[in-house]
Design goal:
The structure is a single chain. This protein is α+β, with helices and mostly antiparallel strands and 352 residues long. It is built from five helices and 14 strands. Strands 3, 4, 5, 6, 7 and 8 form a six-stranded mixed beta sheet that branches. The radius of gyration is 34 Å and the shape is rod-shaped.
Amino acid sequence: MLLLSKEGNAQKVNLEPIPLRVAAQVFSPDEFYIARVIDERADQNPTAFVVVDLERGNNLETVNLKGGTIAALEGYILKAYPGDKNLRPIVIRVKDCKIIENLKNPKTGAVEGDIHLDFTFAMEKGDELVDLLDFQGGISYQRGIRQVNLLEAFLRRSVNLSIKYFDDWIKKDAANNQKLAKSVRLEISDYQGTNDKDTVFYSTDRPLSWEDFKGRPRFNNYAASIFASIGYESNSKVENGEIVVDLVFKTYMLKSSSWVRSGNNSYGLNHEQRHFDIAKIVTERLKNTLEALQLEPHNYERKVSFHYLEAFREMNQMQEEYDRETSNGTNGSAQQRWNEKIDSTLRQLGVD
C-alpha cells in the first residue's frame, strides 16, 4: 500500500489503493441477504485522506479503495456475508465512506484517524426500495507513521460493525415491524355502530323514512334528494411477521344533506332508498375485490386506497345512470326495472 524508494537523498512515496480482503466469511444472516451496494454519495472525492510521512505531516495524501469505493465495498460485503437468496433482499445505500487522518505527534510518528460510514439499509420490494435503518458510525484509531497497511483492517472492522448493527436490529424487530412483514391479511367487516343524530348506516332491518331527510330543499325541480356515500376505517397490527389489517366499511346517508319537499309519497321514498341500495352494492363489490387481491406489505395501503377510489367513481356513475334511466323516478316502468335489478344484485351479494 505504501512504497518507499530512494532517489539520491530524497524519499519518494507511492501510495497504492486500499484493498478490502475477505479473510473469512463473517457470518450468514438469518433474516436477510445483501443483494447489492449502491452509490449515493454527494462527495465523490477519494475515500481516504492519509498521513504518509513526517516531512509532509498533515499535508494529507488522497487514496481510494482498490477498484473504486463502491465496487470494493460490494465485493467485500457479498463475499463476507453470504446469504440465502430466499430471505429478504437488502440493499446498502452508501451516503458516505471516509477515512481522515492527522499527525498526532511528529516526534513519535503517531497518527490518529477516524473512519466515518453513512449507510442506509433498504429492502428491495419489486422496483422499490423501502428504507429500514440508517447507520452512521465507524471507529477512531491510532497507528504508527509507517503502518499504513493497517487502514484496510480498520475499514474492514468498521464495515463489519455496520452489518452487525443491522443484523441485531432486524433480529429484534423482524416479527413486529410492519416494514419487515412478509405477508398481509385483510379482516373485512361492516360497521356495527349505531346511528347518530345525523348519520344513518345501511341496514336491511332499518329502511329509510322521510324523517331521515332533514336538509333544506334546494332550488331545483327535484322532489327529494339523498346524500348516500361509502367509506372505510383501517387499523393494522403485526402478528408474527404478518400485517393484519382491519377494514371496517361504512355505507351511510347524512340526514342534514338529504331533503324532501312536502307532500311526497312512498313511491318517491322508494326511489331514494334505491340510491342507498346502490351505495351498498358498490360497498359489497369493493369488499369482494379486496378479498381477491394478493397484497404486499410495502404497498397494500396504496392498493386499498386505489380500489376504494375506483369504487367511489363506480358509485357515482351508477347513481347517475339510475337517475337518468328512471328520469329521477318519474318513469315508472324504468323504476320498476331498476327495483328488480337492485334487489337481484343485493341477493347475489348476500345482502338480505
